[in-house]
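In this supplementary section we document a worked example of the pipeline. Step one takes a protein sequence of length 459 as its only input; no multiple sequence alignment statistics are reported here. Step two produces a three-dimensional model, which step three serialises into structure tokens for compact storage. The input and output of this example are shown verbatim.
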Amino acid sequence: MPKILLRTLGCRLNQAESFEIEEGLLASGFELAEPNDTPDVVIVNTCTVTSDSTRSSRRLISRSAREYPNARLIVTGCYAVAAPEEVRAVDGVDDVIPNKGKDSIVGFLQNQYFPRTLQLSSCMPQVPPRVILKVQSGCDEMCTFCIVPYTRGDLDSRDIEHVVSAGVSLAERGAVELTLSGVHLGRYGIDSGTGVGLYELVCRLLESLPSSLRIRLSSIELTSIDERLVELIACEPRLCRHLHIPLQSGDDGVLDAMGRPYDSKRYLEVVSAIKEKIPGVALTTDVMVGFPGETLVAFGNTLDIVERVAFAKVHVFRYSPREGTPAASREDQVPEDEKRARSKTLRELGDKLRLEFHQLQAKAGLIEGVLIEGHGPAESGCISDSSGAATQRVAPSLFGITDNYVKIETSGPVGTVGKYVKVKPVDVSVERVSAELLLDQGVDPLPKRPYQSGTVLRR
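The serialised model returned by step three reads:
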């Protein structure tokens, strides 16, 4: 059986597409290379959204060529679209396949490298508890800094029946949480002309999937927030109380120069309504620092908005010029040392807010609906029953996640992997909440949510 090694950089959509490629390889009779194997083919799924990601992609391509000189090396992903000739020039690269060709990679391998008939697999392996499910690609909004519309193309939504069928199949093979992913998730279905959008897709999935499987949304733009979807999240325990809504900047002048279709006032209005309707919701975001023309006053406005919203997590990245985008040709570029300084300041604020969010979650004394995703080596720990009595002193370390995006670290039986549990917090850090696993499950891991008002924004 030919062995294939797949290496992935970048966004959740890239991860979802790599997962689909692996699924196709296994179904077609290929094997996935283990860490100590010598692969016959290495596929590198690249990213190029920033200059740092481009450099990381180049390094990974070159490292793959050095580590496996006798393997065929295929490069795909956004870097392969943005600079195909540059990628082909990297020593060791055999083939370059664009994003739109990812669905054909398995067929390409069969036709070009392994023409002999392979034994098709009639039994696919179990999948991880949490799986990213691609529902659309492409973007029709041209932000002045972004290269993604050039590398991903026009809106391209998958048929709702295809998505539902894929979701059902994943559930049957062990998935208990699906993350719906796309380049512009909120624009799902717009290109189909059927009137079926993200809200309708979510409703269909809720109807079709097991009642114990929950759904998480990946990044969604502010202008695509559907009020019906917010109301649904507020009362439906199978929908995760987590929305990643890119801010990019808290300054109206910078937002306008970026080509973002909202201002800071509108952003605050929307997230205020979300916080009021969904108690305990985790709002996470992307923020860019050092966009051309960003002054210290403008950066201060961003800090103010970030603190007022009290994000559960802030992904900070420095602006980097992407060739062919309008912002790259501006003469008022911010110096690199200033970008680094602003990035450090914003990251420190983001860490403070994330710690406060974790402290707030732990304050309740009990966290339910924790999905245990995996385990590590055995370590000293403590498992408690509902009375608080310790029943085990040494157990494998477990890691999991709550519906509102709190990472949990605990100890317990390996058999809890892939299950929802409840835990008792014992320690809090910026990255996670450490907790004791409570073996007595006693309550529904996905309890109904009473609709109520909550804290809106900091003043």
